[in-house]
Structures are given as structure tokens and as C-alpha cells.
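F.,

This is the one I mentioned.
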């Protein structure tokens, strides 16, 4: 996941599918600390992404939006 997350640029929009590999990617993306928007159907990844500090990652969970305040 870290190698793929390293390819994501600040402000990028990314789509993640379900699966354990994409959950590892989500954790690595949060660790990078960049701003991004992620659309996913993976509830585990969405939860990981919503924990990003200062709301740096906007998470869109199909079919709605997830925020850290709703955890």
C-alpha cells in the first residue's frame, strides 16, 4: 500500500475498491498527511481515511459521505 500511496499527489481524487490491499493503501495515504479526496465502497478503508488529521482527506463512501465527527 505504501508504494501506491506514494504516487498520490496533493489534492488528488482517488477511487478505492473493496479489499484488504486497498485498506493498507488507505492507512499509508493517511500516514502521508496529504490532502486528497477518496471515493470508496470499502467501509474499513473509509474508517481509516476518516481518521486523517484535520480532515485532510475527504471521504465519499458510496452512496454517501463519511466524516471523522460521525465515527
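My design for it:
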Amino acid at each position: 500500500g505504501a508504494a501506491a500511496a506514494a504516487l498520490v499527489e496533493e489534492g488528488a481524487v482517488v477511487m478505492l475498491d473493496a479489499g484488504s490491499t486497498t485498506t493498507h493503501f488507505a492507512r499509508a495515504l493517511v500516514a502521508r498527511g496529504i490532502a486528497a479526496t477518496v471515493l470508496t465502497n470499502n467501509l474499513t478503508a473509509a474508517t481509516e481515511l476518516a481518521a486523517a488529521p484535520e480532515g485532510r482527506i475527504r471521504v465519499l463512501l458510496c452512496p454517501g459521505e463519511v466524516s471523522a465527527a460521525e465515527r
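Strands lie at 12-16, 36-40, 57-61, 64-66.

Talk soon.
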